[in-house]
Design goal:
Blueprint (H helix, E strand, L loop, with lengths): L1 E3 L9 E2 L9 E2 L6 E2 L3 E3 L4 E4 L17 H9 L3 H9 L1 E2 L3 H17 L18 H32 L6 H5 L8 H12 L7 H6 L5 H27 L3 H27 L3
Antiparallel strand pairs: 1-6, 2-7, 3-4, 5-6
């Protein structure tokens, strides 16, 4: 299999730079470390390397358009997750995380989540400043929730005796990514499904409380499933184990976030 040198992977998901012989890539099919993803045939042609263990192409996504990769991400494809997390440079992924936090904060501030929660940061005083203050408090609410979720995922991994993940297996080679960094990227990547909150903003005025609540629950359920899949990829463990860790993290996060929201509501 050959491909031309100019590739569409740019911007958010560029291939990591490497030197020959460094084991910092992984096979997207079986997840085992590989020394490289392609071999240079000529100055304009590359050939994808096959994995020595599963005999599949080490990373077929290096010849795919970014749109195809994003579609596979939305379909919860493990190979697509491995490509982004292990074989790509996610240096701009934090920007997506910031946008998602602001999106959730705006939905919360406009009472779009009123159907599933009684928390509100809106002031009853008709003051533009106090109204805007509620948006910033909502942003703090969701930023705190993100950090709590990330922290408890890492903590429960340690407490439950997390098996040696792929990060530790090749983090000493080249620019291998550490487990905490991969987990952070994974939580952000799993949150991409929250862009589905946008229809709530568009059609909120013509939707009932029940339909909005169902929409929100479905998006959150998709987020949980995505996080379970990504945790399984990063920790190199079974889905059942990942499901246990994720659910525990969500439950404890919800408990602490409720207490945080009580403090924030007093500031309105």
């Amino acid at each position: 299999m050959t491909l031309g040198l100019p590739r569409p992977l740019q911007g958010y998901f560029e291939l990591l730079r490497h030197r020959p012989g460094e084991q910092k890539y992984v096979c997207i099919t079986c997840g085992r470390p590989v020394t490289g993803l392609y071999r240079r045939i000529s100055s304009t042609v590359l050939k994808i390397i096959d994995c020595e263990k599963c005999n599949n192409p080490a990373d077929k996504y290096i010849e795919f358009e970014v749109l195809i990769i994003l579609i596979d991400l939305m379909l919860l494809s493990k190979p697509a997750y491995r490509h982004i997390l292990y074989n790509s440079d996610c240096k701009n992924l934090w920007k997506i995380g910031c946008i998602l936090i602001l999106l959730e904060a705006y939905c919360f501030w406009t009472d779009a989540f009123r159907g599933i929660t009684n928390i509100s940061y809106r002031s009853h005083v008709n003051d533009p400043f106090l109204s805007e203050k509620g948006f910033y408090l909502s942003a703090i609410h969701f930023l705190t929730g993100f950090m709590l979720l990330y922290g408890f995922l890492y903590l429960f991994n340690r407490l439950l005796g997390r098996p040696l993940g792929l990060a530790e297996r090749h983090s000493t080679a080249g620019d291998g990514k550490s487990y905490p960094r991969l987990l952070l990227h994974g939580v952000i990547l799993a949150s991409i499904g929250k862009f589905l909150f946008i229809p709530i903003i568009i059609w909120r005025e013509s939707s009932t409380e029940t339909s909005m609540a169902i929409h929100i629950v479905l998006v959150l359920l998709y987020f949980v499933i995505s996080l379970v899949q990504i945790h399984s990829v990063i920790s190199d463990c079974s889905r059942s184990r990942s499901c246990l860790v994720v659910l525990l993290a969500f439950i404890v996060k919800a408990y602490f976030l409720t207490r945080v929201s009580t403090v924030l509501q007093e500031l309105v």
